[in-house]
């Protein structure tokens, strides 16, 4: 559990009428007497499985408002966990009230482009999570079709591990794994087409699903944010190189060049990196939603 505690994250704030349940890398969860969940997105940022000591201004509000946009856009495909965005004033814009879900113990990842851990696996066996791919693909190459690449859910400070469909079926059951796969691909393809219309490539994304009290598979957590997705600038895309992105790439690149060993407490981020990262999150929100933040 080193990644969170060692980063020195502050304790979750007290919110009247809500009992704190737990704290994650970015979000704090509370519950009330009705059993509803208050999901609060902080301005914390994580990288290399560590929560960093520096926050990114407005990040929590951007993640929350962008998720709300996507939840509404994709509501015809799958129910989501949102009850209301009428939240306590102290967490206005950065929190939502949601249904409690019995979460599936896998991350549901869809990829339409080859990069990151998928690229590393492809170089070893020309496949990603059991999905065979053509030879000759490069970093950033478009895949012939979008693929389902599930992963295990790691504790804070540990790595998610990519798994194949059979392994996912062993965890959640064959029928539910197939339904989660089909939902993940449909959500990804729909969102990717929409993002493309805004000049953005959705290279890959992660969804989390659970079962609601009515027994329905329900989309939870966040949806299609720069924290859970790779968004690339469509005009600058070209396979074989690092793609211009709308996420925490400035943070990752600076940490990599800083000399930090990724084993000890991370360093504070310079103001310039904070400003550039905040600007990219804000630009992603405005490009996708068509609204000023």
UniProtKB/TrEMBL annotation:
Gene Ontology terms for molecular function: ATP binding; phosphoribosylaminoimidazolesuccinocarboxamide synthase activity
Pathway where it operates: Purine metabolism; IMP biosynthesis via de novo pathway; 5-amino-1-(5-phospho-D-ribosyl)imidazole-4-carboxamide from 5-amino-1-(5-phospho-D-ribosyl)imidazole-4-carboxylate: step 1/2
Superkingdom of origin organism: Bacteria
Entry EC number(s): 6.3.2.6
Reactions that this protein is recorded to catalyse: 5-amino-1-(5-phospho-D-ribosyl)imidazole-4-carboxylate + L-aspartate + ATP = (2S)-2-[5-amino-1-(5-phospho-beta-D-ribosyl)imidazole-4-carboxamido]succinate + ADP + phosphate + 2 H(+)
GO BP, sorted A to Z: 'de novo' IMP biosynthetic process
Residue ranges annotated for the SAICAR synthetase/ADE2 N-terminal domain, each copy included: 21-264
This protein's record includes keyword Aminoacyl-tRNA synthetase: no
UniProtKB keywords: ATP-binding, Ligase, Nucleotide-binding, Purine biosynthesis
Class of the enzyme per the UniProt entry, highest EC level: ligase
PANTHER family given in the database record: PHOSPHORIBOSYLAMINOIMIDAZOLE-SUCCINOCARBOXAMIDE SYNTHASE (PTHR43700:SF1)
Family note: Belongs to the SAICAR synthetase family.
Name assigned to this protein: Phosphoribosylaminoimidazole-succinocarboxamide synthase
Taxonomic lineage of the native organism: Bacteria, Bacillati, Actinomycetota, Actinomycetes, Candidatus Nanopelagicales
């Amino acid at each position: 559990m080193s990644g969170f505690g060692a980063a020195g994250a502050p304790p979750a704030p007290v919110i009247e009428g809500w009992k704190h349940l737990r704290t994650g890398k970015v979000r704090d969860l509370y519950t009330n007497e009705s059993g509803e969940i208050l999901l609060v997105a902080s301005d914390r940022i994580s990288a290399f499985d560590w929560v960093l000591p520096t926050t990114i201004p407005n990040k929590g509000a951007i993640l929350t408002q962008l998720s709300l946009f996507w939840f509404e856009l994709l509501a015809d495909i799958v129910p989501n966990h949102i009850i209301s965005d009428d939240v306590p004033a102290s967490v206005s814009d950065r929190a939502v009230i949601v249904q409690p879900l019995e979460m599936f113990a896998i991350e549901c990842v869809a990829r339409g482009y080859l990069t990151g851990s998928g690229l590393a696996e492809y170089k070893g066996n020309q496949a990603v999570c059991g999905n065979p791919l053509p030879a000759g693909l490069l970093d950033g190459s478009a895949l012939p079709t979008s693929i389902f690449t599930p992963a295990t859910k790691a504790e804070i400070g540990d790595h998610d591990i990519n798994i194949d469909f059979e392994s996912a079926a062993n965890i959640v059951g064959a029928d539910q794994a197939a339904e989660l796969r089909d939902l993940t691909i449909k959500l990804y393809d729909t969102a990717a087409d929409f993002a493309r219309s805004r000049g953005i490539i959705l290279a890959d994304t992660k969804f989390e699903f659970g079962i609601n009290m009515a027994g329905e598979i329900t989309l939870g957590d966040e949806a299609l944010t720069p924290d859970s997705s790779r968004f690339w600038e469509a005009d600058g895309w070209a396979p074989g190189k690092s793609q211009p992105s709308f996420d925490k790439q400035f943070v990752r690149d600076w940490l990599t060049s800083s000399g930090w060993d990724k084993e000890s407490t991370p360093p504070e981020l310079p103001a310039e990196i904070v400003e550039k990262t905040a600007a990219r999150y804000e630009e992603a929100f405005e490009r996708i939603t068509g609204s000023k933040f």
